[in-house]
Amino acid sequence: MSNESPDICVIGAGPAGLAAARALKERNLPYSHLEAHSGVGGLWDIDNPGSPMYESAHFISSKTLSGFGGWPMPEHFADYPPHRQILSYLRSFADAYGLTERIEFGVPVDSVEKNVDGTWTVARADGRRSVHAQVVVCTGSQWHPNIPDLPGEFTGEVRHTVSYRDASELRGKRVLVVGAGNSGCDIACDAARSADHAAISMRRGYWFIPKHLFGRPVDTIAHSGPQLPMWLAQRLFSSLLRILNGDPTRLGLQKPDHKLFETHPTINSQLIYHLQHGDITAKPGISRTAARTVYFTDGSSDEFDLILFATGYQHKVPVAQRYFGSEQHPDLYLSAFSRQHEGLFGIGFVETNSGAYQLFDMQAQMIAGFIHDRQRGLPNAEAFSRMIRADRPDLSGGVNFVDSPRHTGYVDSGAFVKYLGKVAGRMGWRTEGNPPRVTPARRMETVA
């Protein structure tokens, strides 16, 4: 065990870990950075063992609103970049800020333990142990699949989409995709094009938001348009979706049982198209199975060879679960600061309705600002410590989110950003990183 003065340990070199490392480095705070895989990128590296990435995956927020502060996504990227462009962006970010050379790759972490003096011991898989003043856990929230029980005895193949990679796996098969989140819809569209027969099962009706409106990425329209009261935005945009998509029940979909924006947005322009063309069939929830037959809650049934569960992920934090609490949604102040354990932080566990990287950046900057001022005994850090323990702001933005496991701890992005900015302003902390010292030519090389 090292006897050196303890530094900060960042665990994970995906987007959250990179945001944390940049924020610490900008303040000259000493840190160690550990990553289990051989390179930067986290789940966006399709070759990273256990990654849920698949070949048809794209960002669901546009490039315009998705980059880290000080390092926007390049103009030559697609409106909704594919996963390989996102990986190149993350690696260019790490290189431009000098983060890559400070990462210890191929170093899985087994556990994080709190010491009696308030420091933290990080145990690596190879048996080495090190002591740190603080730990920032950035291990991600989409590595541990949520797999529901399948009623009955299905004799075909059953998988979670965490193991899905490309449409070749669906050819010659009758495929049922269960779940209508963004990855579920992507993979259902793969099945519509490649499988012998395709269906998608969803327990409730959803609002399907097209990726483009009037030729522009839909999130840029919402971002640049007038800021409407939530009730008015729900009324106007739900009416627009009804005009664009028509009656969903005509396509076999269920009518949404909630108002627009009350669930995590499903942003997909292709599922409606494939339903309209008969490439895929919409089904309600599953009531039971027998052999290769799946029976649905509307009394219908169909035969399948493969059931793919696109049923989301649990926010497990195996390296420090006892300190993070719930496996569904860790109880972290502003989704980043442990309420019970000083010196423990997490980035990448926020559930919200917008692009995540700017939120990770804001959280990272606030964590680094807090550690910096705490080390110097500044009064604002003590005031913030009290807020961590006691402050429980309403970050719903006036949205009544549905009662489901995924929406436990869910926040509205606009309300979240506004509140983080307000708190950071009071504490004197910035919420965005600075541009790197890198020439435009060098930047183009790194993201080509």
Pick out its properties.
448 residues, alpha/beta, FAD/NAD(P)-binding domain, 7-stranded mixed beta sheet, 28% helix, globular
Provide an overview of this structure:
It is a single chain. The protein has 448 residues and is α/β, with parallel strands linked by helices. It folds into 2 domains: 7-144 and 313-447, 3-Layer(bba) Sandwich (FAD/NAD(P)-binding domain), CATH 3.50.50; 147-309, 3-Layer(bba) Sandwich (FAD/NAD(P)-binding domain), CATH 3.50.50.60. It contains 11 helices and 24 strands. The protein has helices at 15-26, 83-96, 182-194, 218-224, 230-245, 271-276, 321-324, 357-375, 379-390, 413-427, 440-447, and strands spanning 7-11, 31-35, 103-105, 109-114, 120-124, 129-137, 144-145, 152-154, 157-160, 174-178, 197-201, 208-209, 212-213, 216-217, 266-267, 281-283, 286-291, 293-296, 301-303, 306-309, 313-314, 332-333, 337-338, 344-346. The strands form 7 sheets. Strands 1, 2, 3, 4, 5, 6 and 24 form a 7-stranded mixed β-sheet that branches. Strands 9-20-10-11-16 form a 5-stranded parallel β-sheet, covered by helices on one side. α1 runs parallel beside α8 (357-375) and α8 crosses α9. It is globular, with a radius of gyration of 23 Å.
